[in-house]
Amino acid sequence: MLNRLFQACFALWLPVVMFLTLPGVAEAGMQQKGANPMVIISTNLGDIKLSLNEEKAPISVANFLSYVDKGHYDGTIFHRVIPNFMVQGGGMDENMKEKSTDAPIKNEADNGLKNTRGSIAMARTQVVDSATSQFFININDNDFLNHGGRDFGYAVFGEVAEGMDVIEKIVAVPTGNRGFHQDVPTEPVIIQSIKRAE
What we know:
26% of the residues lie in helices and 28% in strands. With 198 residues, the chain is an alpha+beta fold.
């Protein structure tokens, strides 16, 4: 009797166990667990911790993390700082020399994420799908940068989890013109490194 009961229970549970161990199901569980990768931007003014939204901006997050993992951002600067608007970096060194990049990515501005205070978005030219390595962090709610505004919009892919006080320090740095560039901090705000948080 007990043997039959055990066999019946085993027969019922075996398909469930097999389903849960299928590669696709296991991977889905892993992806859900790591849906918001965290990175730390270390600057000469302090650290900024970012939470990246891999679910809603998979292309932008994968692109950003690719540059992070290659050390692309190490030694770059926040080269454009505009109070009450945003701080931009990730593409130039202290000499305002632009770093080489990978191919541009698809613009994900239609993902539902908004350019609100503390959000991070991909910088680009007037060409919709032109974003590469440069990013900006919004200081204010910049609704006009959202999808459906004056053009396709700017793709948000995460937000500041810690360190808005550091962003405020960056905003407080005096700026001026340097060559053809405007709003450049007169004292370099250096991105010493961007690394995945452990």
